[in-house]
Structure formats: structure tokens, C-alpha cells
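Lab notes, practical 5.
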Amino acid sequence: MVVDLTRPLTILVNPQAQLREIGSCYLSGQVLKELKEMNTSDWLWNELHYLFDTNDGSLPEIHVNYTNAEATVEGYALIRQRASRVVTESPYFWSKIYSKEMPLDSVENAARLVVSEEAECFHVVFGGIRYENFTIPDLRVYVFTDQLALDYRMGDEWGPGELNALFLLLAKLVHLDTEANLSLEKHVPPSIHAHFHNCWQLWISKHNLRSH
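Output from the prediction step:
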């Protein structure tokens, strides 16, 4: 099946409809040609806005899954460096070595202690992450040994530019591990997951980036 990118995917109106077909589409030369002629940010927002634009009180998560522990460390460092501020007041992690809370920035990279099992998994909210002149709304980052989980609050702060900036961040994080992949939370319907993944694949192709 070839997706007609001159119009929104059918599932924009009913996100859980026809995903079986959409998910099995392939990236033909015509699809890529049509996508290149479009405003990618607007197209992406048109497809995925329902996951971002209305604050329903939930905090959806996007998971960056790694097979290489060093990628977890580098991914956390990348986010920390791109953020202009730490939103969490007095962030900390639990040290297994000293059996006490430690200030997050008392060490160079707390994620390294997590992957070495010297510290418990931790989370912290970062703000001011910018790409292409757009600021991603605050992201809560959960650091696990083999995963970075990013959660966000839906609402008016999101738009085409902010979503595209988020995808640019995700691309940087995925690039750190040749076996990395993205996933949504387990309770998300398979149809929504398939839609997100399909949009991710098309967006990656437009930007000539490596996809997983």
C-alpha cells in the first residue's frame, strides 16, 4: 500500500481505524517525493496533534530503548546539555553506595551510576530544550539502565514547531545506538502505536536520517 501524503492519513479522523493498512505501507519513491514537497512540520502535526494538543490530565510517555548502556549515559548527557534549565526543585538520585539521596549534579553524569547499578533509576524535569528556534515544552526524563522515558503534558504549548523539535531530539537520541528504537507506553492501543511509528518512519525518511 502507498500512502497518499497529499492529504492527512485516514486515521487522523479516527486514529484507531485502518491502522492495519497504514502500518504495512512502504516508502515508495512517490511517497518520499510528495513528502519532500510538503511542509514536514505541518504534516507531522496534522497526523499526531491528537497526542499533544489537548490537556486531558495524563502524562504520555515516549520511550527510547537502548541495547548499549553507554547510549543511555550519552542520551541523558545530550538532554542535560540541550536544556536551559532544570525545572525540578532540588533534583536528586538515590546512591546505592552511600545509601542516601545525592544532588543530581553532585556527579558529572548520574545516568552512568544508574547503568553501573551504583544508583537507583531517577527522574528529572528539564525545560528550554530548543531545536530550529522552537522550544519543546517541559519534558520529564526517567533514566533506566536501558531506556530513557520522556513524558510530557499535553496542551496549548504544543504546535507544529514544537512537535518537530521533539522529533529532532528523538532522532539525536536514537542515533546514539544502532539498535535503538522508540515505543509508547504498553497501555497505548496498537493502532495508535502503529500510527506513531509510521509517522516516525516517514519523518526520518524526509530528513535522511537513520531509522530503527
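Observations recorded by the TA: The chain has seven helices and ten strands. Helices lie at 19-23, 29-36, 40-48, 69-82, 110-115, 160-174, 190-206.
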